[in-house]
Every structure is written in C-alpha cells, then in structure tokens.
Amino acid sequence: MQTQVIRIHQHGDSSVMQLETSSVAAPQAGEVLLKQTAIGVNFIDTYHRSGLYPLSLPSGLGVEACGVVEAIGAGVTEFKPGDRVAYAGGALGAYAVHRLMPADKLVHVPAGVSDDIAAGTLLRGMTAQYLLKKTFPVHVGQTILFHAAAGGVGQLACQWARELGATVIGTVGSEEKAKIARTYCDHIIGYEHFSEQVREITGGKGVSVVYDGVGADTFAGSLDCLAVRGMLVSFGNASGPVPAFEPAILAQKGSLFFTRPTLGHYTSTRAELVNTAADYFHAVRRGLLKPEVGQSYALADAAQAHQDLALRKTQGSTLLRP
Fold first, then answer.
1. Beta sheet of 143-146, edge-to-edge order
2. Do the bridges between strand 187-189 and strand 167-171 make them parallel or antiparallel, or are there none, so unpaired?
3. How far is CA 100 from the centre of its chain?
4. How far apart are CA 292 and CA 66, in angstroms?
5. Backbone angles phi, psi at 91, to 5 degrees
6. Residue among 322, 292, 318 nearest 305 (CA)
7. Which residues form the Enoyl reductase (ER) domain (predicted)?
8. Tens of pLDDT, residues 266-303
9. CA-to-CA distance for 171 and 282, rounded, in angstroms?
10. From the CB of residue 286, how many other CB atoms can be counted at a distance below 10 Å?
11. Under 8 Å CB-to-CB from 50, ≥6 apart: which residues?
C-alpha cells in the first residue's frame, strides 16, 4: 500500500519537512494498520524537527493521532478492524495517512469522544492527568501556578485542577489569551514580574506547586513563586531548556523540590497507559473538561502549523488532516 508521510532528512526550521510517498506493509505480529483520521501537532514535534531532541535521520514526525483499524497482525486480540483508536507516544511517524502501530501503544476511543478531540488532545490530556494526579497530586485547598494557561496543556490542566479543588493562577502572554484563560482560572497574570504577582495573590505565602512548560524564561521566577517545600514541575521547553543551576538554590529558597518528568515514564506499562487515557476520556465524557481544538491544517501544510505554533499564534490544540 502507498501512503503519504511527512519526513525530515536534516534538522532545521520548518522548511526541512517534506511530503513524501511511502509504502506501508501488512501488519506483522502484534501490529495494527491504521487509516488515520486526525493527527495532533505538539511542541515536542518542533523539538524533534529542530534537533533540540536529536533524531536518527531520515525520520518521520509526530507522536499522536486518531484513526480506524484497517487490519491486525497475528496475536492482536484487543482490537479488530473498524475500531476507533488513538495513541500518544511511542515511535515518531504520526504525520502520515496510514500507519503501522504496535497494538500495545493504542487505546480505544469511547463513544462521546470525537476523532478530533482524541487526536488533538490525548497527549495533552494524559500530560495533565499525570502532572495533577501523579507528579504532584493536587488537593482541595491548594493554590497552584500553571504557566501558559491558554495553551493546549494549560487549558485542560487548569480546568482539571479546579475540579480537584485547587485555586488556579495562570500566566498568559496576551490579552487575547487572558480572555480564554479567565473561564477556568481563578487569577490571570502576565509574565512580567509574575513572581511578585503570585506573592501578592497568596498573601506572601507562595504556591504549593508551579507547573512550568515554558522553560528558560520562567525558571528563576517560578522558584520565587513557591512556598516552603513547594515543587517546581518543569515539563517543557517552549522558550528553551532550563539553564544549569546549583542544587543549593533549592535549599536557600525553602527546601524546594524540582522535577523534570515526561509522559513516557508515567505510562511505561500497558496498565498505566490504558488507565491514564481512560481517566482523561472519562473526564471529557462527563463534561468535567471541555478540550478545544483551535485550528487544523492539511497534512501538506505541516510546515505552516509548526511556524504558527512556534510564534504562539495557535490556541488550544492543533490538528493535521490526512
């Protein structure tokens, strides 16, 4: 079978992405052949493309999509042709019309969750789930700071944190994004002098946890927002990687905790993956979360999607349509 895929043959800006025709074999043992219906675009895709996270080249891009099972290989019992499935993680190559996937990386998409929501928000939804429920379990009465509150992860995580009973402070980079975030944050602040604003809101105490997917630009200020024994959860590098720092600074600022988690380490077993995805989909179906797919692009326009994402022109989640 012939299909279309996006590949890179060198690291660089968005111009290195090429639309190519490729062959797809029949599924082998433990594999599933998917006809993809929607593909998620994420910041990590830009890191893979640019070389911030170096790849063995040539390489596909993309870690998340939704599709329909067209065929299964020997030994696959969890899925059958016609099933709607999604994935978020594993080997790169989601930017494609058809794709072979290991069955143990797929999850069922339940009725009541659209293909667009599954493809565009599963990675973000599972990220929000592990951040709020596993990395630093959020409880009633806590005050938290979430950077980039109007972003794909931020929108879901801030909604979910409020459902868990937390007071949510969110940072945004523009008034347009502030209008979005106000619907699910208790306090909206800008990035300028944000640590001082957090201290003012909390009466000088600081917050229990800062969830920081921005990276270099917010690291120092995030530490200054934390209460004694608070935790900085650094889960992304939108502005570049966090600079090297002396561990003693954590003691000086209040016996702080610092962690750099990844989704893969929280979904490394089949049970963890299925349960994390199911918890997210359950929250969506119950109406606790209202994920937003903000924009979509044709597969051939993946470069434009990356440009808009890097320039922070996007809102909510971004899709490619095969």
1. 187-189, 167-171, 143-146, 207-212, 226-234, 257-259
2. parallel
3. 22
4. 16
5. -65, 150
6. 318
7. 12-320
8. 999 999 999 999 999 999 999 999 998 889 999 999 99
9. 27
10. 10
11. 11, 12, 13
The neighbour count for residue 275, using CB atoms within 10 Å, is 14
Q: In this model, does residue 3 exceed pLDDT 90?
A: yes
**Token pair in block for residue 58:** 């040539």
Q: Which of 16, 46, 15 lies closest to 239 in space, CA to CA?
A: 46
| 158/185 Cα distance (integer angstroms) | 6
Using DSSP, state whether 253 is helix, strand or coil: coil
- Percent helix, strand, coil in the chain, to 5, is 35, 30, 40
Nearest CA to 180 out of 316, 312, 283, 313 is that of: 316
Beta bridge partner(s), residue 33: 71, 100
The pLDDT, as a whole number, for residue 294 is 84
Give the Cα separation of 162 and 142 in Å (integer): 10
For the chain, domains (ranges, CATH) are: 2-122+268-321 (3.90.180.10), 140-260 (3.40.50.720)
What does residue 22 show for φ and ψ, rounded to 5 degrees? -140, 155
DSSP label of 243: P
- Can you tell me the distance from the alpha carbon of 287 to that of 266, in angstroms, rounded to the nearest whole number? 25
The residue count of the chain comes to 322
